[in-house]
Amino acid sequence: MISCQNQTGFKFSPPQATQDSTLKPAIVLSDSGWISLFNGNSLSGWHTYGQKKAGSAWNIDSFSIHLKPGLKNGYQTAGGGDLVSNDTFSNFDLKLEWKIARKANSGIMIFVKEDTAKYKETWNTGPEMQVCDKDSNEDAHSPKHEAGDLYDLISSVAMSARPALEWNQVEIVSNNSRLDLYLNDTHIISTVLWGDSWKKLIAASKFNTMPGFGSFHSGHIALQDHGEEVWYRNIKIKKIPPGN
Questions:
Q1: Vertex 148 angle, CA 21 and 164, to 5°
Q2: Most exposed residue of 95, 129, 143, 186, measured as fewest CB within 10 angstroms of its CB?
Q3: Cα dist from 3 to 105, 187, 204, whole Å
Q4: Phi, psi of 55, deg, nearest 5
Q5: In three state form, how does the secondary structure of 3-61 look?
Q6: For residues 69 and 107, what is the distance between their CA atoms, to the nearest angstrom?
Q7: For residue range 53-64, what is the model confidence (pLDDT) as tens digits?
Q8: Domains along the chain?
Q9: Are strands 11-12 and 186-192 parallel, antiparallel or unpaired?
Q10: What is the CA radius of gyration of the chain?
C-alpha cells in the first residue's frame, strides 16, 4: 500500500472501497485553540455515563486516566462504566494517547448521546475507534474489530497499533460530516457521516437494531470500560468552526 504525507505530518494510505476515495487530507488549523480535556491530576471534566461523577474504578496513574479492573459488573468493572466528557462537541480535532494491558479491550467513542432513558450504553449512539491489544485480544484479528478500526463499520487501511503496554497516538477529526482517524502517524480511515453510504454501513453492522446509532451531529467523547485495564493521557480537543 502506497503511503502519502499530508500537511500535519501524518502519513496516510489511499482509502479502501468502503471509504470516499475523492476526499482530500484533513484541513489543517493553527496550533491555537486547543482545549485540554484532562489536566493529568484529576477526573474533573469527566463522569461515568448516566452518573454525576466518575466511578471509583477510574483513577489517576502517572498523569494518565487509568481503569483498574476488579470485580465485574456484567462485561464492565464494578465502580467503572464508560467515562464520558462533561462537554459535547460537533466539528472537532481530538488528540490523545492510549495504552492497554495484554489481551485487553477498550474504545474511544464520539457523538455519544447521554439519554439513559432511551440509550442504555454509550455505544448505542456513539461510533467507536477500537482500542485493544493488537496481538492477543479476542477481537485482535477480526475484520472491523482490530485496533484502530471504526468498530464493526470500517477496517483500517493498515495496522499501525503498537504492542500491549506501549503508548499509541490517536487523532480523530470530524469536520463538516467528514471523519478521519489517525493512529501513530498513519491515516487509517476516512469516511463521510450521516449520508446514504453511512446508513448502509450501519445497516450492515451489529448496530442496525439500535435507533439513533451514528445519527447525532454533536455529542460526548467516551472512553470505554470493557472490564480490562487501559490508560489514556494527553487528551485535548480543538473546535473547528463551521465551514472550515
A1: 155
A2: 143
A3: 28, 9, 29
A4: -65, 160
A5: CEECCCCCEECCCCCCCCCCCCCCCCCCCCCEEECCCCCCCCCEEECCCCCCCCCEEEE
A6: 15
A7: 999 999 999 999
A8: 32-239 (2.60.120.560)
A9: parallel
A10: 17
pLDDT of res. 138 = 82
Written as one letter, the residue type at 11 is: K
Measured CA to CA, the distance from residue 46 to residue 26 in angstroms comes to 28
Q: Residue 192: which of 13, 19, 26, 24 has the closest Cα? A: 19
Q: What is the DSSP-derived secondary structure letter of residue 121?
A: S
Q: Is the pLDDT of residue 10 over 80?
A: no
124: left (phi over 0), alpha (psi -120 to 50) or beta: alpha
| C-alpha distances in Å from residue 197, one per residue of 106, 111, 228, 233, 235 | 26, 18, 33, 33, 30
Owner of C-alpha cell 454509550: 122
The alpha-helical segments, DSSP class H, found in the chain are 196-203
Torsion of CA 227, 231, 233, 237, to 10 degrees: -30
